[in-house]
Design brief:
alpha/beta; three-stranded antiparallel beta sheet; elongated
């Protein structure tokens, strides 16, 4: 008996790049057996060719040795079994049928129409395994979208409106540095997949789970009423400060930047005490939230002048003493090495499967803590087709002769 939430579940992973592989990474971290199906004709998942690479010589922008691995694959391939299968080869259909017949989940992120052409659409797979949960992640949904229907993260950010929620009002749109569209869709896909598995336990029937990157990101944009802000004259783009929540925003210190979040009366008055102006707490300009919104520029200017000549440590100590939420703005390299997130295994070390810890690398863990279950990503990313023998011989029962024939016909 294992204590992993998805132990005993088998996931057939037909994904590539980021959105799909991140969804199956989380399913693997939750304990599912994830069989990653890669095309031998194209060198497998496109992430295998993403620079930089890591190997016996550490990190490099180009491959130096045959066993150098892309950091992207090192991160996204953990806890997965890799098999090769060319789904364009007609002989692959029998192998694919064997893979999905007893599986619980299939995850794919092909462009709309591709699964139909390959003969692996939901309608086809449902005939093979009615209990299977078939999860699709795409740019615009299963029905397709504008143009080619293909979507990159920046395209989704542009269409979702999120680019026009950040940055200064008089500047152009701002692309989030984090590929937020690529990372949000798989989160919803995992929620949908696990929900469908729970339903299948009661009904005995699987279903198609359809998640779009555009829908996932736009739904979060709609969590904030930007249209309402616009209707009442509040700016949607305010740069580093948020006047409607004043005092609230990013402020410069003498040696860095800090985030300040003080929208309530108690927090705002604590800020005024921290900067040595307790007298202003009763001032009609700053006493209540609505008054502070009207005087936001003046209030933010006052706090900014106090902060910019002081070191972060002094500023944060003053705000903390007054119970005001404030924090240093950290570089990513420092943030992913926070002792707290490391201790909780929300971020974990990345190690090369052959050469170990040859570079100081950090990767996502499973950021969910359970009181009575174990989760984690503790097995390294596989080489292309590394588990062909295990999956095809040991799990599916193929003979040595069958495997040799599949190899000779370039099926696997």
């Amino acid at each position: 008996m294992t204590d992993q939430p998805l132990a005993g579940r088998t996931v057939i992973d037909l994904t590539t790049a980021l959105a799909g592989p991140y969804a199956t990474l989380l399913l693997a971290g939750l304990g599912a057996t994830v069989i990653k199906v890669e095309n031998p004709a194209t060198g497998g998942d496109s992430s295998r060719n993403n620079a930089p690479y890591v190997g016996r010589d550490g990190l490099n922008l180009a491959r130096r040795h045959d066993d150098d691995l892309s950091v992207s694959m090192l991160l996204r391939g953990r806890n997965k079994l890799s098999v090769t299968l060319d789904l364009k080869n007609p002989r692959s259909h029998a192998v694919f049928t064997d893979l999905v017949r007893d599986a619980d989940v299939l995850v794919e992120n092909y462009s709309p129409g591709v699964t139909e052409r390959l003969g692996i659409s939901y309608a086809r797979v449902r005939e093979l395994n009615p209990r299977l949960v078939y999860t699709s992640i795409s740019g615009f949904g299963a029905q397709g979208g504008p143009g080619s229907g293909k979507a990159m993260d920046s395209i989704i950010q542009a269409l979702s409106g999120v680019m026009m929620t950040a940055g200064e009002p008089d500047e152009g749109p701002v692309r989030f540095g984090l590929p937020i569209g690529d990372l949000l869709a798989p989160l919803f896909a995992v929620v949908g997949t696990v929900s469908a598995l729970l339903q299948a336990e009661h009904t005995g029937e699987g279903q198609h789970v359809d998640v779009s990157m555009l829908g996932a990101l736009t739904s979060l944009v709609a969590c904030e009423p930007f249209d309402a802000f616009d209707a009442v004259g509040l700016p949607q783009r305010t740069g580093s400060m948020v006047p409607r929540l004043a005092p609230f925003g990013i402020l410069p210190a003498a040696d860095g930047y800090l985030a300040l979040c003080a929208p309530t009366d108690a927090f705002a008055h604590g800020v005024l005490r921290a900067i040595g102006r307790p007298d202003l707490a009763g001032d009609e300009r700053y006493r209540t939230r609505d008054q502070r919104v009207r005087a936001a520029d003046e209030l933010h200017g006052l706090i900014r002048e106090w902060c910019r000549v002081r070191p972060l440590a002094e500023i944060l100590a003053a705000f903390t003493a007054e119970g005001v939420p404030a924090a240093e703005v950290r570089e990513p390299r420092e943030a992913v090495r926070d002792p707290l997130v490391l201790a909780r295994e929300e971020v974990v070390p990345l190690r090369h499967p052959r050469h170990g810890d040859v570079a100081d690398l950090a990767g996502t863990g499973v950021p969910i803590r359970f009181s009575a279950a174990r989760v984690g990503l503790d097995r390294p990313a596989p080489g292309l087709g590394e588990h062909n023998e295990h999956v095809y011989r040991e799990l599916l029962g193929y003979t040595e002769e069958q495997l040799a024939e599949l190899v000779s016909e370039a099926v696997i």
